[in-house]
C-alpha cells in the first residue's frame, strides 16, 4: 500500500490522498536540480521533531507538494523537524535527514520516497543556486546551528560573523537534560558556568547565576532584551541558548567585554506540537511538563503555544528544597504575508529556591580537624530558612516587511520579580576550624524592568557589493528596591562536627530585647541607545562595521536605622551618601571586523570591539558611585565548515583590557573597590558536529589568563591551613584575578542505534575538566582542579513498536563519580559543586 500526502483535509484508512499542485512550480530535488536554474522562492517552515508521517503531512499542507510512499517507509521513523526559510526541496531533504529515506521526482510531477542506500545521510543541499539556512532563533539541527540573530540582530550565517559565537541547540539540551542555564553552558567555550551564584544545588536561577565569560561576569538577554528575571534560567521555556564571546555593546548596550548570553523563548510553531513528560530523579525530584502548539484559525495564520512546568525536589544539602510551577502562553498572528505579531506571557512561582550557604574552607579545600565536611551539612538555621520568588513577564514581537529593501522589527518586554528570603549567612571573617558563626537576616527585593528594541533593517546592492544594514534604538528602564533586616540579638553558630540548631528569630522593632538593623535601598536607571551596523559582502569577503551611542541616567539612595544605635557600630542615615539626583553617564562604542570564506570551507577573521557598562547600584564604603566599566578587545580566529557536512570547527585568540574593574574591599566587608585595569587573554577551540545520522559530538578547550594589569591595590597573603594573614602587603599588579580557571576542557558524544534489535536506543557520555583558580587577588592559594563525568541513555519506543510511536524514555546523569569539588574559595569559605545527579523522564509526542 502506498501513501499520498496532499495539502490535505483528511487521512483515510488506506492513507491514499491526492493533490494537484505541480512540483515543477517549486523546483526539483537535488537529484534533478538544473545547473544555472533561477533562484526558487523560499517559505518559512517550523515543523517540530515528530513521527515522519505527521511531518510529511505538515510539509504537504504548507508547500502543496504531493508526497507518495509505501506503508513500510514511515514505520517507527521520526523526522528531526525543521525551522527556518527553505525552498521546498531543501525543506523535504531536511525533514528526511537521518531517517534513511530519500526522494525522487516521478514522471507525473510527484515526489516519491524510498529507502536510501546504506550510510546515506541527507543534509543541507544546494537547490536552484541557493543554499537554505535554519531559523536563526530556532532549535538548530542536532548539535549544529549555522545561523544566528544574536551576533548582528540580522539573520546571518555564523561563518560570516568575525567573532566567536557558540550555540547550545535544543537537541543538546534534550540529551543532557540541564535544569538551568548554567548547567546548559557547561560544555561551551570561554564559559565558567559553576561559580558562586550556582551554589552547587542545581536550582533554576535566572540572571543571578554568577556565570563568568572570558574572565568577566556576564549578562543575559532574552529575545534580544536584557533580563534580571529568575525565569531566565528555566530551560523548559527555551528554544536555544547562544554564547556571544567578546564585547557586544554595539548591538546591546551595557555588556562587559567578556560577552553576553542570548536566549530564545519558545513560540508558536507552524505545525501542531503536542508533548507531555513526567520525570524523576535523586534527592526526591519529581517533574511534569507540557508543551502544546496548534493553529487557532483554519488557515493557520493565528497559532498558539503553551509551555508549563511543575517540579519539586530536595537538594544535596539538608533542609534545602526546591519547588517551582510556571506557565508560558504565546500567540502568533500573521496579519498578512508581510506582517506578524507575537505575544508572550509568563508567570513563575518558586516558593523554594533551593540555595545553600557557604562552607568553611577548612574542612573542604583544606584539611579539617574532623575530616572532610559533608555536602549534606547545612550551615544555617532550619527555622529561619525560606527563599521564594514570584516572576511575571509580558512580551511582544512585531515584524513588518515594507519591501525587499526595508523591514521593521520591534521587541518589547515588561517583567517584575519579587524575592523574599529568611536566611542566615556565614560571617566569613570569624570562621574557626570547628565553629561557623552565622548572621541572621530577612530581606525582600523587587525588580521591575521595561525594555524595548526597535530597528529598521534591509539589504541593498551596489553592483557586486551586498549590504545588510541595521539602524535601531533601544531603551531600558530599571527599578530595584530592597529592604534588609539584620538580627544582632543573638549570635547563632553551627558546630562543624556535630551540627545543632537553636536560633530564635527576633525581628520586632517594638520588642525591647530585639537588636535590629534595617536598611532600605533603591536603584533606578534609564538607559537609551542608538546604533547602526553595516555588513558588507563582496564575493567571499565580508566586512562588519557598527557603532552605538549610549546615555544612562541613574539614581541610588540608601537609608539605614537600628533599634539600638550602639549595636555593632551599625550605620545611621547620616552615614550614607545618597545620589538621589540623576547621575548621567554616556559612551560611544564601536566595532569592526573582517572575515573571508574560502570555497573549501575555511574562514579566517579579525575583529576589534569596545564595551561600556555603568556601575549601577554599586558604591564604595563611603557611598560614592564607581566610574563605568570600559573595555576593548582584539580577536583573531579561524572557522571551518566541512563542505556538505554538519561539522563546524572554530579557533579564536583574544586580548581584552577593561578599566575600573571591581574587586571585594578587604578593609570594608560587603563593599567593592576599584582595582584599576585588568587584562584577559587566551584562546578557545570548539567543535560542533553531526558526524553521521547516528553520531553527534561537541568539544571545546579554553585557555584564559586574566590579571591585574594596572592597579595601586595591595593586600596580605593568607595561609592555606590557618586562614590567617601573614607578612607585609604585596602589590596586586600582575597577579591573577581570582575565581577564573585558566584551563577548561570538555567533550560530549551521543550515539543512537538505527538498526537491529536495539534500533532506537542511544547512549551518551561527556567529560568536563576545570583547572585551578586562585582564592584572592594576591594568589595566596589555589582551589583544586577537577574532572567530572556525565552519561546518559535514551530510547525511542516507536522504532521497535509502532503502537508506541512518540513515546521516548531518557536518563541523564551528571558527575557520575560523585566527585567532591569546590567551585570557588576565599580565605575562609568555599562553595561546593553539585554531586551526582540522576534524572529520568518519559516523554510522549503526538
Write the layout of secondary structure elements.
Blueprint: E1 2-5, E2 43-47, E3 50-51, H1 52-63, E4 67-70, E5 78-79, E6 82-86, H2 88-95, E7 101-105, E8 111-115, E9 126-127, E10 130-131, E11 133-134, E12 147-148, E13 156-157, E14 165-168, H3 170-176, H4 181-184, E15 191-192, E16 212-213, E17 216-217, E18 219-222, E19 225-226, E20 238-245, H5 249-252, E21 259-265, E22 273-281, E23 285-295, E24 302-314, E25 321-336, E26 339-353, E27 359-360, E28 386-401, E29 407-426, E30 435-462, E31 465-487, E32 493-495, E33 516-538, E34 541-562, E35 579-596, E36 602-613, E37 629-641, E38 646-659, E39 662-664, E40 672-674, E41 677-690, E42 695-710, E43 714-718, E44 725-731, E45 743-752, E46 761-770, E47 786-796, E48 807-814, E49 822-825, E50 829-832, E51 837-845
Parallel strand pairs: 4-8, 18-21
Antiparallel strand pairs: 1-4, 2-6, 3-5, 6-11, 7-8, 9-10, 12-13, 14-20, 15-16, 16-17, 18-19, 20-21, 22-23, 22-51, 23-24, 24-25, 25-26, 26-28, 27-50, 28-29, 29-30, 30-31, 30-32, 31-33, 33-34, 34-35, 35-36, 36-37, 37-38, 38-41, 39-40, 41-42, 42-45, 43-44, 45-46, 46-47, 47-48, 48-51, 49-50
Membrane topology: Multi-pass membrane protein
InterPro entries: Beta-barrel_TonB, Beta-barrel_TonB_sf, Plug_dom, Plug_dom_sf, Secretin/TonB_short_N, TonB-dep_rcpt-like, TonB_sidphr_rcpt
Pfam families: Plug, TonB_dep_Rec_b-barrel
3D architecture notes:
- With 846 residues, the protein is mostly beta strands.
- A hairpin with a 2-residue loop joins strand 30 and strand 31.
- The chain is built from 5 helices and 51 strands.
- The protein has a 22-stranded antiparallel β-barrel. Strands 14-20-21-18-19 form a 5-stranded mixed beta sheet.
- Helix 1 (52-63) runs antiparallel to helix 2 (88-95).
- It folds into 3 domains: 2-134, Phage tail protein beta-alpha-beta fold (3-Layer(bab) Sandwich), CATH 3.55.50.30; 147-264, Ferric Hydroxamate Uptake Protein, Chain A, domain 1 (Beta Complex); 265-491 and 498-845, TonB-dependent receptor, beta-barrel domain (Maltoporin, Chain A, Beta Barrel), CATH 2.40.170.20.
Amino acid at each position: 500500500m502506498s501513501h499520498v500526502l496532499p495539502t490535505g483535509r483528511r487521512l483515510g484508512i488506506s492513507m491514499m490522498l491526492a493533490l494537484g499542485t505541480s512540483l515543477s512550480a517549486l523546483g526539483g530535488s537535488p537529484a534533478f536540480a538544473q545547473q544555472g536554474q533561477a533562484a526558487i522562492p523560499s517559505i518559512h517552515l517550523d515543523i517540530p521533531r515528530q513521527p515522519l508521517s505527521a511531518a510529511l503531512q505538515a510539509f504537504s499542507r504548507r508547500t502543496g507538494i504531493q508526497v507518495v510512499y509505501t506503508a513500510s517507509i514511515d514505520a517507527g521513523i521520526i523526522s528531526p523537524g525543521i525551522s527556518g526559510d527553505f525552498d521546498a526541496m531543501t525543506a523535504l531533504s531536511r525533514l528526511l535527514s537521518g531517517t534513511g529515506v530519500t526522494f525522487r521526482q516521478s514522471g507525473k510531477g510527484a515526489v516519491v520516497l524510498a529507502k536510501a542506500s546504506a550510510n546515506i545521510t541527507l543534509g543541507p543541499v544546494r537547490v536552484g543556486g541557493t543554499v537554505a539556512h535554519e531559523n536563526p532563533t530556532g532549535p538548530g539541527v542536532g548539535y549544529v546551528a549555522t545561523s544566528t540573530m544574536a551576533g548582528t540582530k540580522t539573520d546571518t550565517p555564523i561563518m560570516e560573523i568575525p567573532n566567536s559565537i557558540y550555540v547550545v541547540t535544543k537537541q543538546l539540551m534534550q540529551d543532557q537534560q540541564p535544569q538551568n542555564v548554567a548547567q546548559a553552558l557547561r560544555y561551551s567555550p570561554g564559559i565558567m558556568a559553576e561559580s558562586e551564584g550556582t551554589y552547587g544545588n542545581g536550582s533554576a536561577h535566572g540572571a543571578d547565576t554568577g556565570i563568568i565569560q572570558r574572565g568577566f561576569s556576564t549578562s543575559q538577554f532574552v529575545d534580544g532584551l536584557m533580563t534580571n528575571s529568575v525565569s531566565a534560567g528555566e530551560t523548559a521555556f527555551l528554544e536555544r541558548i547562544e554564547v556571544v564571546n567578546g564585547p557586544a555593546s554595539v548591538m546591546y548596550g551595557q555588556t562587559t567585554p567578556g560577552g553576553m548570553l542570548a536566549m530564545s523563548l519558545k513560540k508558536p510553531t507552524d505545525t501542531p506540537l503536542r508533548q507531555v513528560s513526567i520525570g524523576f530523579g535523586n534527592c526526591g525530584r519529581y517533574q511534569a511538563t507540557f508543551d502544546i502548539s496548534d493553529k487557532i484559525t483554519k488557515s493557520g495564520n493565528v497559532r498558539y503555544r503553551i509551555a508549563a512546568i511543575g517540579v519539586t525536589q530536595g537538594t544535596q544539602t539538608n533542609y534545602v528544597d526546591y519547588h517551582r510551577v510556571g506557565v508560558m502562553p504565546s500567540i502568533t498572528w500573521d496579519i498578512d504575508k508581510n506582517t506578524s505579531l507575537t505575544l508572550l506571557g509568563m508567570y513563575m512561582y518558586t516558593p523554594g529556591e533551593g540555595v545553600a550557604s557557604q562552607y568553611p574552607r577548612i574542612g573542604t579545600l583544606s584539611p579539617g580537624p574532623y575530616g572532610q565536611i559533608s555536602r549534606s551539612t547545612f550551615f544555617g538555621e532550619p527555622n529561619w530558612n525560606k527563599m521564594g520568588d514570584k516572576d511575571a513577564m509580558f512580551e511582544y514581537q512585531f515584524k513588518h516587511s515594507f519591501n525587499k529593501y526595508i523591514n521593521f522589527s520591534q521587541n518589547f518586554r515588561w517583567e517584575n520579580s519579587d524575592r523574599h528570603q529568611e536566611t542566615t549567612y556565614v560571617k566569613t571573617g570569624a570562621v574557626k576550624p570547628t565553629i561557623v558563626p552565622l548572621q541572621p537576616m530577612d530581606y525582600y527585593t523587587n525588580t521591575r524592568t521595561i525594555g524595548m528594541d526597535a530597528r529598521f533593517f534591509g539589504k541593498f546592492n551596489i553592483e557586486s557589493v551586498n549590504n545588510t544594514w541595521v539602524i535601531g534604538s533601544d531603551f531600558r528602564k530599571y527599578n530595584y528596591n530592597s529592604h534588609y533586616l539584620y538580627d544582632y540579638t543573638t549570635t547563632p553558630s553551627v558546630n562543624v562536627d556535630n551540627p545543632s540548631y537553636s536560633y530564635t528569630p527576633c525581628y520586632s522593632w517594638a520588642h525591647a530585647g530585639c537588636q535590629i538593623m534595617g536598611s532600605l535601598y533603591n536603584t533606578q536607571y534609564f538607559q537609551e541607545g542608538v546604533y547602526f551596523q553595516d555588513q558588507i559582502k563582496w564575493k567571499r569577503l565580508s566586512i562588519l562595521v557598527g557603532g552605538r551611542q549610549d546615555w544612562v541616567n541613574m539614581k541610588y539612595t540608601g537609608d539605614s536605622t537600628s533599634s539600638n544605635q550602639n549595636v555593632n557600630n551599625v550605620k545611621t542615615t547620616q552615614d550614607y551618601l545618597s545620589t538621589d539626583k540623576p547621575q548621567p553617564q554616556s559612551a560611544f562604542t564601536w566595532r569592526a571586523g573582517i572575515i573571508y570564506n574560502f570555497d573549501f570551507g575555511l574562514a579566517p577573521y579579525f575583529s576589534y570591539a569596545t564595551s561600556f557598562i555603568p556601575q549601577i547600584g554599586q558604591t564604595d564604603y563611603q557611598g560614592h558611585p564607581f566610574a563605568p566599566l570600559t573595555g576593548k578587545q582584539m580577536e583573531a580566529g579561524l572557522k571551518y565548515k566541512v563542505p556538505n557536512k554538519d561539522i563546524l570547527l572554530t579557533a579564536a585568540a583574544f586580548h581584552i583590557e577593561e578599566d575600573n574593574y571591581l574587586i571585594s574591599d578587604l578593609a570594608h566587608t560587603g563593599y567593592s573597590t576599584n582595582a584599576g585595569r585588568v587584562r584577559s587573554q587566551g584562546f578557545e577551540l570548539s567543535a560542533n558536529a553531526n558526524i553521521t545520522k547516528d553520531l553527534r559530538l561537541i568539544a571545546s578547550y579554553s585557555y584564559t589568563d586574566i590579571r591585574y594589569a594596572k592597579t595601586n591595590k595591595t593586600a596580605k597573603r593568607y595561609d592555606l591551613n590557618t586562614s590567617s594573614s601573614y607578612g607585609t602587603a604585596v602589590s596586586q599588579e600582575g597577579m591573577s584575578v581570582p575565581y577564573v580557571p585558566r584551563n577548561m576542557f570538555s567533550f560530549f558524544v551521543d550515539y543512537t542505534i538505527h538498526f537491529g534489535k536495539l534500533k532506537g536506543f542511544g547512549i551518551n557520555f561527556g567529560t568536563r575538566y576545570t583547572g585551578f583558580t586562585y582564592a584572592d587577588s594576591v594568589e595566596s592559594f589555589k582551589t583544586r582542579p577537577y574532572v567530572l563525568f556525565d552519561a546518559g541513555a535514551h530510547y525511542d519506543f516507536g522504532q521497535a513498536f509502532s503502537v508506541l510511536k512518540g513515546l521516548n524514555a531518557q536518563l541523564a546523569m551528571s558527575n557520575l563519580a560523585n566527585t567532591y569539588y569546590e567551585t570557588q574559595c576565599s580565605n575562609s569559605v568555599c562553595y561546593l559543586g553539585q554531586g551526582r545527579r540522576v534524572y529520568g523522564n518519559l516523554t510522549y509526542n503526538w
